[in-house]
Amino acid sequence: MPVMKFGGTSVADAAAMENVINIIRGEIKETAPLVVSSACSGITNKLVALAHDAAEETCPEAFSLSNEIKTHHQTVIDDLIQTESLRKSLHELVNKYTDEINTLIKGVDIVGELTPRTLDAFYSYGELFSTNILAAAMQERGIKTEWLDARQVLITDDNFGQAQPLWDITQENLNTVVLPKLEAGIVVVTQGFIGSNRAGKTTTLGRGGSDYSAAIFGALLNRASIQIWTDVDGVLTCDPRMVPEAKRLKVMTFSEAAELSYFGAKVLHPSTIHPAVKNNVPVYVKNSKRPESEGTLITNDPELLKGMTVSGMVKSIAYKKAQSIINVRSTNMLGTYGFLADVFRVFADNETSVDMISTSEVSVSLTISNTKNLNQIIEDLKHYAEVDVEHNAAIVCVVGDKLRSSAGVAGRIFNAMHGVNIRMISQGASEINVGFVISEKDLEKAVKALHNEFFSEVSGSDVFA
Ligand SMILES: Nc1ncnc2c1ncn2[C@@H]1O[C@H](COP(=O)(O)OP(=O)(O)O)[C@@H](O)[C@H]1O
Ligand SMILES: N[C@@H](CC(=O)OP(=O)(O)O)C(=O)O
Question: Which positions does UniProt annotate for ATP binding (predicted)?
Answer without folding.
Answer: 230-231, 241, 266-267
